[in-house]
């Protein structure tokens, strides 16, 4: 069986299928910066594709067997690219090794002294972004891969640094993170999700436990959320250095003197009973306090000074699509958020409700049929909370609707909800009802963000 590390030498030639993807584009840039000869393909001519072309990487539009050039030595694909892709079929026919994206990152990671891998059902992107801010404030010049965008990184999701530190958002889907080599593994929480792959919660816990055990026994750390029962189950009894964070003094890292001022939160960070630093966090909600504690705990494991933690977190104003302010329409504030699981929706509404808006209007787009069906009742509990809920049709992503489920099934049971099979109708309705004192939240992991953007474009 081929090992990706055998190809990490200057001059070797690789082809990336879906090169414009959120973690494929940074992988391409890192490989290219290491002196490899990289080509790629993608369906769309995105900004990421244009950026990579600007570096000198040859990229084909569309997927064709001819894109696998004669001297290609290996191929990398995203999870969305299957064996029936013409480029994958051609590589297999010619005996060219085909690697998963996560295998590529895992191979690269082994060359870094400090690999901070941030995992969890929720909070991965925000915590990885906060870690990035702290490491940048500490002048650590990290390599970064985030599953979202960050203004600090010129609104991209990655950077290629020159230090011995790499920070990666680490996804459990398809056990991708089991290809990684963390020296610090962060687990924010563990819940039922991705049930089109995992059998049940126990299967998910087993995967996270394997992830934690990837940490070196003597020199690594497992940073975990002590407040989350499932995460405690995952790390229970493992023979690794455990480092906890949470909202009480049971944890190694915890907050004190929490004060909320509008959408900001001020608090002291305590480390094993002693003051470590104080923080002003410019994103609302207890879940973001917890994310900041996770990032701080990882930073303490790296030996980062308290001032860098304070400065780094103070400079964080949210990642793209994480309570991201988009603009105002007719006096209403429009925000966008990626929440696509009931717990994320709960955390979002918990953060918004104390902010004093007259009305909370949520435009929610469920993400995948399997998740919507498996967590239907839990979604119901949260969707009944806003003053007004508009439901867009389910975003299919990789799935086909073999279950006959629709967003309209929520609206049939909720007095505050209306179902719109067409997103244009939602935009028109919002134009008619938006008024000063409203907050309009476009929520979901699909293309629901476009609804807010279209509304603002029509001002």
Describe the overall structure.
With 459 residues, the chain is α/β, with parallel strands linked by helices. Helix content is 31%, strand content 25%. The chain has 15 helices and 21 strands. It has helices at residues 24-33, 47-55, 86-93, 101-109, 124-137, 201-212, 229-235, 286-301, 306-314, 342-352, 369-374, 376-383, 408-411, 423-433, 449-457, and strands at 13-17, 37-42, 58-61, 74-77, 98-100, 114-119, 143-150, 156-159, 165-169, 184-187, 221-225, 242-245, 253-261, 264-271, 274-281, 324-329, 332-337, 359-364, 388-391, 417-419, 438-443. A seven-stranded mixed sheet has the order 8-7-9-6-10-11-12, sandwiched between helices. The protein has a six-stranded mixed sheet with strand order 16-17-21-18-19-20, sandwiched between helices. Helix 7 links the parallel strand 11 (221-225) and strand 12 (242-245). Helix 5 packs across helix 9 (306-314), helix 10 (342-352) runs parallel beside helix 12 and helix 14 packs across helix 15 (449-457). The protein is globular, with a radius of gyration of 22 Å. The model has no long low-confidence stretch (mean pLDDT 95).
């Amino acid at each position: 069986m081929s090992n990706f590390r055998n190809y990490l030498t200057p001059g070797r030639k690789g082809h990336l299928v879906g090169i414009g993807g959120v973690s494929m584009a940074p992988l391409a840039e890192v490989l290219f910066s290491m002196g490899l000869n990289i080509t790629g393909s993608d369906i769309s001519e995105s900004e990421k594709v244009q950026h990579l072309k600007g570096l000198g990487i040859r990229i084909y539009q569309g997927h064709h067997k001819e894109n696998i050039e004669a001297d290609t030595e290996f191929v990398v694909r995203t999870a969305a690219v299957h064996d029936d892709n013409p480029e994958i079929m051609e590589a297999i026919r010619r005996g060219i090794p085909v690697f998963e994206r996560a295998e590529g990152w895992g191979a690269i990671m082994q060359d870094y002294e400090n690999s901070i891998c941030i995992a969890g059902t929720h909070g991965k992107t925000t915590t990885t972004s906060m870690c990035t801010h702290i490491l940048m404030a500490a002048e650590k010049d990290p390599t970064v891969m985030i599953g979202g965008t960050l203004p600090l990184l010129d609104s991209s999701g990655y950077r290629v640094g020159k230090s011995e530190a790499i920070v990666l958002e680490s996804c459990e889907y398809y056990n991708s993170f089991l290809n990684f080599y963390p020296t610090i593994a962060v687990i924010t929480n563990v819940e039922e999700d991705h049930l089109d792959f995992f059998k049940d919660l126990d299967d998910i816990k087993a995967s996270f436990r394997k992830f934690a055990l990837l940490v070196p026994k003597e020199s690594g750390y497992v940073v975990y959320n002590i407040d989350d029962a499932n995460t405690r189950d995952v790390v229970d009894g493992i023979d690794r250095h455990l480092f906890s964070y949470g909202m009480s003094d049971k944890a190694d890292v915890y907050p004190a003197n929490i004060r909320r001022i509008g959408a900001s939160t001020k608090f002291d960070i305590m480390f094993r009973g002693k003051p470590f630093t104080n923080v002003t966090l410019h994103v609302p909600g207890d879940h973001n306090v917890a994310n900041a504690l996770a990032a701080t705990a990882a930073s303490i494991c790296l030996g980062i000074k308290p001032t860098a933690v304070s400065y780094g977190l103070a400079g964080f104003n949210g990642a793209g699509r994480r309570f991201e302010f988009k603009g105002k329409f007719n006096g209403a504030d429009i925000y966008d958020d990626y929440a696509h699981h009931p717990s994320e929706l709960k955390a979002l509404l918990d953060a918004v409700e104390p902010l004093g808006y007259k009305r909370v209007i949520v435009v929610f787009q469920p993400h995948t049929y399997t998740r919507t069906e498996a967590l239907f009742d839990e979604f119901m509990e949260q969707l009944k909370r806003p003053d007004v809920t508009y439901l867009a049709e389910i975003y299919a992503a990789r799935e086909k609707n073999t279950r006959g489920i629709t967003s309209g099934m929520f609206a049939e049971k909720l007095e505050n909800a209306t179902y719109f099979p067409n997103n244009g109708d939602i935009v028109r309705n919002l134009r008619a009802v938006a008024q000063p004192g409203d907050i309009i939240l476009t929520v979901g992991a699909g293309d629901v963000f476009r609804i807010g953007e279209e509304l603002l474009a029509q001002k």
